[in-house]
Amino acid sequence: MSMVVLWLVLVVVAWVSIIRSTQSRRGTKFWWCVFVLLMPITGALIWFVARPRNSDNDQRTSS
Questions:
Q1: In 17-56, at which residue ranges do the beta strands (DSSP E only) sit?
Q2: pTM of whole model > 0.85?
Q3: Is 22 in contact with 52 (CB distance < 8 Å)?
Q4: How far, in whole angstroms, is CA 53 from its chain's centroid?
Q5: Could you tell me if 29 and 62 are in contact, meaning their C-beta atoms sit under 8 angstroms apart?
Q6: What percent of the chain has a predicted confidence (pLDDT) above 70?
Q7: Phi, psi at residue 32, to the nearest 5°?
């Protein structure tokens, strides 16, 4: 039961991160969401490693 909850949390967090990302094309966000849906653990982990970095956050941390 707890593994199902962890799986759902991972997928939801990945989807929120994808939707809030600053990618320029909306189609890319759609395909990332589909990828995470079809391959939940692997897709979410790949997203968290390969996601585009927000330049606004990078500027705040470097100051």
A1: none
A2: no
A3: yes
A4: 11
A5: no
A6: 79
A7: -65, -45
